Each structure stands twice: as C-alpha cells, then as structure tokens.
Amino acid sequence: MRIRPWPATGTAFALAILWGEWENWRASRRLVGPATGPTEAVVVLGYRNPGPHANAMNRWRVRAGLRSLDPSATVSRLVLCGGACAGPTAEATLMADYATGARGYRGTLVIEQQSRTTWENIAFAIPYLEDADRIKIASLPFHAERARHYLNEQRPDLAQRLVRGADYRFGEWMPLKPLLALHALRQRGRQPEARPSQE
What we know:
Layout: H1 5-27, E1 39-45, H2 56-68, E2 75-81, H3 91-102, E3 108-112, H4 118-125, E4 134-138, H5 141-154, H6 156-159, H7 177-188
Parallel strand pairs: 1-2, 1-4, 2-3
C-alpha cells in the first residue's frame, strides 16, 4: 500500500519532536550527581543581548534559574553571568533587572559582568560557588551540560557538587529541541576549546 505523503510527513515530524525532547531530557541529567547540603548556588548563563532589556532567551534562562532554587535551602545564591557581548549593557545586569523587577526576586544575587564566553561564565562564577553544597547551572539543556563539562575541567572538586536544575521541561522550546540536539551531537566529537563562543 502506498503511504500518502502528508501522514508520513506528520509522523516524521512527531518522531523528530519526541526525539528532540528525549535528547534534551538526557542532556539535563548528564554530569550531575547526588550532592546534598543546605546551601546552593544557581548559575544562569547569559546569551547575546543587543538591546536595553533582557531578550526572550535571557528572560527564559532567568525563569529557569528561579525555578531551580530550592525553597528548603538555608542559603540560595543566584549567580547571573555575562558581560556586554552584543550591546552596551552586560547581559548579567539585564537579567538581574528582569529577575528583580519583572519576577520579584529578593534573594541573594551575584551579577558577574566580565565573562564573554561559556568557558568564562564558569571560570568567573567559581568564586561564588566555593561555599555551596549544591551547584546548579541553568540554560538550555545542552548548553548547561557543556557548562558542567567546563566546570569539571576547571574545578573537578566543585563539579562533584553539581546537581540537576529545573532547566528541562517537557514542551518548552519544543520545535527547536530537535535542532538543538542535532547541533550538540555535531559538536560532541570536537575537542573542547579554551575560549568557546558565547551561546
């Protein structure tokens, strides 16, 4: 029997979407462990932001960081990372304005304004992670996984404290997830660079 093209296309699209969800779900669970303790730090990685306000990606990353905070922690620190990579204002500053203004965050906040790459996001965040029992990294799942890998390279002792954040949710960025997964899988075979580009 000949398969009609539209049903076949629809099936392929649905399978691609489910595959993208599966791969992103898996990425969100790699390089994390069972660390426990009453204190935590949540690192939010910045994204290129040319305008005077946090763009859609940075707003989403802030929300992912905020929902990653553990309400039972005795100390929670939100570490926002990113310099002025695409505009006059540091990404971390724009994200902080969004977190405190639009989202009403009133907890401990660190604004790291010097980093220009994911590698530097992690390197410059390290001083604010030293005293945290648990460390979470908030970004798109594959980007957060790469940042966890960089922490393993830079400070393997701190990487032992990495735990899952709440960056993955089923259905978020759903149409983009297959593309993000394909991009990440293409990059996987390459050697990590000392100064990879910002994402």
